[in-house]
């Protein structure tokens, strides 16, 4: 009774000491609530799909896999997933056969041509997000696959784009979100979640006409998504070890990408931001791209911030509710034109009707601080502010072309069921 009286009953002590007890209790309660909500959400998804053990994963349908992947990308790990996909594409520039082709297409433009580089980035983003984040079998997803196949086949027919390079790119898109989630977010993916990503990307690879013949179990088939993932991971690491090397074309493409990445960063922060990019790429890729090594102090500071972020997300941040989910695609097209608006832009606002916030908010100020006049960016009709048609996305020279070839692909895709289990024989 004496302790309780000291802490709670005595007005003087309550004013001086009691608030600390209340603050500590509230803090602990908040941590318990956040942690409980995060883990209960994960358990709820696990129970919803009821994949209890490894043997049940072979029965995962494409629809199941898509639902799990969408939840991960929109609500659980949207920032890490988005960055991982961008850096997966960036890492492919360390393969000379890939960077030579990209440099030869001249889609990155001349040094300092942000407009050309940002256009290619916008087109790639449009096709990827429509392919990956639209429901399987939807008209938008099928159009994105058909358009991508048309653009790729221009180079595949001539042997300039190999199946191995395509498979390596697919492997990075598949593996990078899993690796980055484990390294940079509050928890790694579960087997069910990894299997879902593998199932989705295996099917997308097949739709993109990528052969898996180089994987050991191609002839007899894979048990489940994890089995396919294990073999893809091993093959990807070997391919990276053999083919990642320095070349002039790597440097050309990387320099163009560097200009794009930094065009909305104040000049005083260029070295800092590019140093963080170098950390994220890793030593082997840095060497192939001739990117300077980051300082030890910067790397230590970055790792410390990542550790702090993981701690805050795990213990002091409630899970993202559905209404705050990351939206990757415009839900509905313009009823008059059938065109879609991009949800985000990098460098230049391609396919976006810029808002007052764009023109006077942080994007405009960042451009101004980097020496770019915002009026030349936001008052430019060349960026197609009316939006995009998926069937015409790509270089200007290919707008309106390839539609007949795309119809053949669309017909083949329409015959595939979205409720199929890709690993059941």
Automatic annotation (TrEMBL):
Pfam families: MPAB_Lcp_cat (PF09995). GO terms for molecular function: oxidoreductase activity. This is ER-bound oxygenase mpaB/mpaB'/Rubber oxygenase catalytic domain-containing protein. InterPro entries: MPAB (IPR046366), MPAB/Lcp_cat_dom (IPR018713). Residues 117-307 form the ER-bound oxygenase mpaB/mpaB'/Rubber oxygenase catalytic domain. It comes from the Eukaryota. Coiled coil: none annotated.
